[in-house]
Design the sequence.
């Protein structure tokens, strides 16, 4: 029942979307929408894991807002309206003219969107790269790849190192890959960096001392709970994160279909399932049970950031991008399973030197029910 409650809306929307595709465009449209949905899900497993790490820091009111208003922004805003606005800005056509172009001359619309890809890739690549670097260069008690992650943590003691590395990557990508789009890539990438620093910084700024600890939680599950303005900026952070993941998918979707409504339906199906998967991870306490998942997701995000920067000049098949993400998530999940089996026996845990781990092997205090919890403060 819990799984049905979590994924029920996603399944319902999928059935309705596929039925609409079949009625509107026949079997060809049905297949296109289904393929786009599957591709979006396979590209976004790491997105769901990182969403869950942020969502569990928000109170119930903002969690529900992310799952309602947030999904409307994700499906209609980022996957339908935003590409139209990008083309409008780069071609100086009105949004109405761009919509007419997308409907009646999809080939030309796709070409204009492709021309805007360097700016999109630079913005999204920098935002995602900062997420990965901030995680990988931070001190933490649990290491998935100990030699590498301890070395990264030592390097991360240098103040502002993630920003310095990100700026270095941006300049390198602009000089080596951008060509005539040099200034566009530099400006867009800088805006991506500013967006990350601004949204994350404002969320921390508004995190009041009284909100630092979640009432009733101790041990590994004790974490800051954001409410009010802090939660609002975390909400914005999640939406920009989703946009950074969706940019490349929207552009690449034209290789499967040039019908913007088919693209919106297919990517919308994927976005719904990613939201449901995020809720599932939070409710089940999965990130507490499978402690390496968060590591795998951030490695995958780092790889996606690099791929986005590479696509400023070169085409990278989405199947390659999806395979890398799934490989990191799958490997980290299997590593977590192996760790849990070792820790099942106290003697084995001591033999592997895992009895410390900052208490992360303790059971979490139970699943978080995003629907039954109180609404909290807004």
Sequence:
């Amino acid at each position: 029942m819990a799984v049905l409650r979590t994924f029920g809306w996603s399944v319902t929307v999928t059935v309705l979307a596929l039925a609409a595709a079949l009625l509107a465009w026949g079997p060809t449209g049905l297949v296109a929408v289904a393929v786009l949905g599957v591709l979006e899900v396979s590209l976004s497993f790491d997105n769901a894991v990182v969403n869950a790490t942020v969502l569990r820091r928000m109170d119930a009111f903002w969690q529900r807002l992310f799952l309602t208003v947030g999904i409307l922004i994700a499906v209609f805003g980022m996957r339908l309206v935003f590409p139209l606005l990008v083309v409008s800005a780069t071609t100086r056509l009105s949004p109405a003219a761009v919509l007419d172009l997308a409907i009646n001359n999809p080939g030309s619309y796709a070409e204009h969107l492709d021309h805007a890809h360097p700016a999109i890739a630079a913005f999204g690549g920098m935002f995602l790269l900062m997420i990965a670097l901030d995680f990988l260069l931070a001190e933490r008690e649990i290491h998935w790849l100990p030699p590498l992650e301890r070395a990264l943590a030592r390097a991360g003691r240098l103040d502002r190192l993630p920003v310095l590395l990100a700026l270095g990557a941006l300049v390198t990508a602009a000089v080596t890959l951008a060509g005539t789009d040099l200034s566009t890539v530099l400006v867009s990438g800088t805006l991506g960096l500013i967006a990350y620093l601004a949204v994350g910084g404002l969320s921390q700024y508004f995190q009041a001392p009284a909100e630092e600890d979640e009432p009733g939680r101790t041990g590994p599950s004790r974490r800051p709970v954001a409410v009010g303005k802090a939660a609002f900026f975390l909400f914005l952070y999640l939406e920009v994160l989703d946009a950074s993941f969706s940019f490349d998918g929207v552009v690449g979707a034209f290789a499967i279909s040039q019908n913007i409504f088919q693209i919106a339906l297919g990517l919308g199906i994927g976005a719904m399932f990613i939201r449901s998967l995020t809720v599932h991870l939070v409710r089940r306490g999965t990130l507490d049970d499978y402690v390496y998942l968060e590591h795998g997701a951030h490695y995958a995000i780092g790889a996606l950031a690099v791929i986005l920067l590479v696509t400023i000049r070169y085409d990278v098949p989405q199947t390659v991008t999806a395979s890398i993400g799934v490989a990191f998530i799958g490997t980290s999940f299997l590593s977590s399973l192996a760790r849990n089996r070792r820790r099942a026996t106290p003697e084995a845990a001591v033999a592997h030197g895992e009895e410390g781990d900052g208490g992360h092997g303790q059971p979490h205090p139970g699943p978080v029910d995003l629907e039954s919890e109180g609404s909290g403060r807004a």
The first helix runs from residue 2 to 43. Confidence is low (pLDDT under 50) at residues 210-222, 353-378.
